[in-house]
């Protein structure tokens, strides 16, 4: 009898191990990929891509707020500060503070005389000396992102021109690693598939465009970790409510979900686009009004605190800046199209994985196999729509906040090619995503493009695809198709890892991809 019980328990443990093994393997692979990506994130991060004024500006804002309580930074909306309506006063920049009328202005001093201050300063921040217009108080952006990036700077720096990219970009590197881990959790819970979650981590952590974009100190890189936590909690809260288990936990979970969404707004205002999608999710899942109200209330708390702070600090300037930002010029209706080929930073490569990320959003949206995917697709869509409609100029960094979510849709689309391949989707992956890694990887190896080699790869891909398409009812064929796709992903990782150091070393001198004479 006892031996029979032992056999039963052994069998149960064996079955449990078989169930959990794919999850453990996926976690192991994801950890290895994230660990490996740290080298490629750090390689040349301080100079490539070349830092721009906005990155410095966020740090100036954060450092001044930490040191004096008054945000000071450079602005392009100078007319708001110099207009006679607000009775401005001239000053000069001393360290990270403003000095006016022989008085160093901190928060207490400013509240005694709340007239805005402006200063024209000659600054050299890697691009040569430029005349820059500094203002106090600076309200162009909420302060959270600047505060986070300023943590990378040494506490001993005294002046604005001592701020350096090798310091303030370090938090971005850490944030990217945190984002990768959160992305794994989020994709896993909405797909219940650890392999898809690992695929998302692979795409996010190896694609050249994604690696380059996520190591910059833009506010858009601060949004994703807050939004991912927000969506994870939102998903859990709604599912707990629907299953009627641990119902008392629903409101606290939803409250924290809203709070993290509100904190994303404090990184940059367009993050509210994600929250619009989340609100729609609450409505379509028929969540009670009191829970939805709790979500809106908690999401509003960080926003209301920010508005209250701005109005308290200098009401007229704060409102004028809000109005100026809301009425900025619009780039035009071609804005979405111009971003399809590549993330349009200067010298960024044409990267098929960027195109695949955008295309995969459409592919997955047209083939939604589970309502859980809406937790990714709907907030992503409403955020993208908001960027397209309210974003002023066609700045490429506006789209950086999409990166981890596009990595998620890219992974789901690849998995759909494995599970239910469609000829068009499979070839789109081959010609757009894989071919991009293949091309740039061979360039990095110093190999000339070979049409014969590429044709053979195409024929092999086609053979496996047709076998899966016509004989997919056989487990052996599906297994071979899985192994083949896994090999393509592995080769993509290798090619991407080869290309990134090459790209940094040859920045601005990549081979031309078109005939410039025609």
TrEMBL record:
Keyword annotations: Membrane, Transmembrane, Transmembrane helix
Residue ranges annotated for the Glycosyltransferase RgtA/B/C/D-like domain, each copy included: 166-306
Transmembrane segments: 17-35, 172-190, 196-213, 225-241, 253-284, 291-312, 353-368, 373-391, 397-417, 424-441, 453-472, 479-504
Protein name, entry field: Glycosyltransferase RgtA/B/C/D-like domain-containing protein
Organism for this UniProt entry: Candidatus Daviesbacteria bacterium GW2011_GWC2_40_12
Phylogenetic lineage: Bacteria, Candidatus Daviesiibacteriota
């Amino acid at each position: 009898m006892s031996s029979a019980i032992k056999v039963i328990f052994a069998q149960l443990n064996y079955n449990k191990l078989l169930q959990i093994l794919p999850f453990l393997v996926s976690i192991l692979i994801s950890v290895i990929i994230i660990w490996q990506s740290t080298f490629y994130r750090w390689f040349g991060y301080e100079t490539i891509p070349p830092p721009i004024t906005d990155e410095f500006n966020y740090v100036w804002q954060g450092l001044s707020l930490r040191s004096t309580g008054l945000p000071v930074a450079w602005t392009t909306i100078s007319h708001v500060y110099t207009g006679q309506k607000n009775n401005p006063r001239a000053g000069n920049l001393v360290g990270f503070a403003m000095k006016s009328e022989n008085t160093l202005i901190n928060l207490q001093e400013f509240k005694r005389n709340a007239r805005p201050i402006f200063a024209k300063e000659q600054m050299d921040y890697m691009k040569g000396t430029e005349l820059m217009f500094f203002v106090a108080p600076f309200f162009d952006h909420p302060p959270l992102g600047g505060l986070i990036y300023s943590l990378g700077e040494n506490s001993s720096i005294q002046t604005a021109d001592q701020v350096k990219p090798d310091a303030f970009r370090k938090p971005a590197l850490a944030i990217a690693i945190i984002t990768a881990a959160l992305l794994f959790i989020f994709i896993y819970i909405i797909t219940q598939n650890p392999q898809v979650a690992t695929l998302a981590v692979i795409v996010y952590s190896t694609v050249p465009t994604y690696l380059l974009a996520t190591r910059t100190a833009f506010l858009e890189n601060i949004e994703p970790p807050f939004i991912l936590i927000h969506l994870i909690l939102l998903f859990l809260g709604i599912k707990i409510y629907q299953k009627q288990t641990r119902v008392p936990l629903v409101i606290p979970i939803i409250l924290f979900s809203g709070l993290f969404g509100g904190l994303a707004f404090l990184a940059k205002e367009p993050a509210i686009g994600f929250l619009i999608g989340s609100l729609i999710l609450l409505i379509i899942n028929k969540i009670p009004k009191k829970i939805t109200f709790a979500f809106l209330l908690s999401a509003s708390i960080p926003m209301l605190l920010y508005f209250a702070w701005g109005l308290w600090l200098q009401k007229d300037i704060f409102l004028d800046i809000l109005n100026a930002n809301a009425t900025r010029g619009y780039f035009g209706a071609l804005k979405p199209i111009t971003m399809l080929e590549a993330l349009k930073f200067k010298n960024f490569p044409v990267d098929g994985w960027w195109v695949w990320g955008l295309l995969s959003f459409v592919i997955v949206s047209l083939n939604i196999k589970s309502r859980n995917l809406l937790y990714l697709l709907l907030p992503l869509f409403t955020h993208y729509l908001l960027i397209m409609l309210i974003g002023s100029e066609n700045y490429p960094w506006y789209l950086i906040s999409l990166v981890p979510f596009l990595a998620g849709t890219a992974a789901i689309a690849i998995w759909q090619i494995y599970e239910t391949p469609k000829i068009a989707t499979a070839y789109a992956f081959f010609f757009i995503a894989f071919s991009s890694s293949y091309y740039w990887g061979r360039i990095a190896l110093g190999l000339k493009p070979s049409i014969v080699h590429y044709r053979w790869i195409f024929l092999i891909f086609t053979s496996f695809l047709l076998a899966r398409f016509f004989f997919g009812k056989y487990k052996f064929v599906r297994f071979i198709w899985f192994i083949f796709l896994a090999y393509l992903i592995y080769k993509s990782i290798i090619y991407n890892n080869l290309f990134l150091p090459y790209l940094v070393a040859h920045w601005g001198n990549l081979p031309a991809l078109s005939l410039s004479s025609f």
